[in-house]
UniProtKB/TrEMBL annotation:
GGDEF domain segment(s): 142-274
Gene3D superfamilies recorded: 3.30.70.270
Entry protein name: Diguanylate cyclase (GGDEF) domain-containing protein
GO biological process, one term: negative regulation of bacterial-type flagellum-dependent cell motility
Organism annotation: Cyanobium gracile (strain ATCC 27147 / PCC 6307)
Length: 274
């Protein structure tokens, strides 16, 4: 085997390897959830074609390089090497672009549903997650409570120590509350310093102990002012009757009324609606 034969064989082997990699990536893409059936079949057929091309390239490399001892390689063989090698390379480039697009779409979808500061769901994300939780609780026959929570005197924090300090307090309070929640609870930031919480499995009275733990968690967050000052929370809680957005909005509206009552009663407390 001369040098030209060796180069030809190596290029054919590289083509077969790239075809295998591209076929695997195409097959994995066909298995992604949410893919239309027609797109899945196209991806699978493409994977099969790539595998066939890889097998052909390897057989051709062995046949041309080893099956014609002493004969020079025909120029058409080199043309086909280049063309065949370009096919899996182009497929891999397209698949890489599609992966980047999928990642960007996922990031955009997450951004629409989440608050970038606290990394909690926003109002849209909360409505979606809470609706699912309400339906699940209804199937199991469990009660659901909704709560509205508000950081007390938050405007004074922004005015006294700047919005940067306020952002730190928001982020730390959100993290502190998230740490004491149960699996299945849904917490979201729905306003400047306002949070919404869905508590499946408990009624309004049963939610009291958990909300008290949330108040204690917030009180442990360092205040940007004097060491003697504390971050406090006021909360209102109500039962959610029924499923769907209308029931959720009614429950949150009742909880919001209880929150205002907690504010009027001196803040840093939990009030139960009606």
């Amino acid at each position: 085997m001369n040098t030209a034969d060796l180069i030809f064989l190596l290029l054919r082997a590289a083509t077969a390897m790239l075809c295998g990699v591209a076929a695997r990536e195409a097959w994995e893409r066909a298995r992604l959830p949410g893919q239309p059936r027609q797109r899945r079949w196209r991806a699978r057929c493409g994977a099969a074609v790539l595998l066939a091309l890889g097998v052909f390239a390897l057989e051709d490399g062995v046949g041309e390089a080893l099956g014609r001892p002493g004969e020079p390689l025909r120029w058409r063989s080199w043309v086909w090497v280049i063309l065949d090698l370009s096919i899996p390379a182009q497929v891999l480039a397209v698949l890489s672009t599609l992966r980047q697009r999928d990642r960007l779409e996922a990031e955009l979808a997450a951004a629409v549903r989440s608050d970038p500061l606290t990394r909690l769901p926003n109002r849209t994300g909360f409505a979606e997650a809470a609706t699912v939780a309400l339906a699940s609780a209804a199937r199991d026959g469990r009660p659901v409570a909704a709560a509205m929570l508000d950081i007390d005197f938050f405007k004074a924090i922004n005015d006294g120590w700047g919005h940067g300090a306020g952002d730190v307090v928001l982020r730390d309070v959100a993290a502190a509350m998230r740490a004491v929640l149960r699996p299945g609870d849904v917490l979201a930031r729905v306003g400047g310093e306002e949070f919404a919480l869905l508590l499946p499995g408990v009624d309004a009275m049963g939610a009291g102990p958990l909300l008290e733990r949330l108040r204690a968690a917030a009180a442990a967050v360092p205040h940007p002012g004097a060491p003697g000052q504390r971050v406090t929370l006021s909360a209102g809680v109500a039962i959610v009757e029924g499923t769907g957005l209308a029931a959720l909005e009614t429950g949150l509206r009742n909880a919001d009324g209880a929150l205002y009552a907690a504010k009027a009663a001196g803040r840093n407390r939990v009030m139960v609606a009606g």
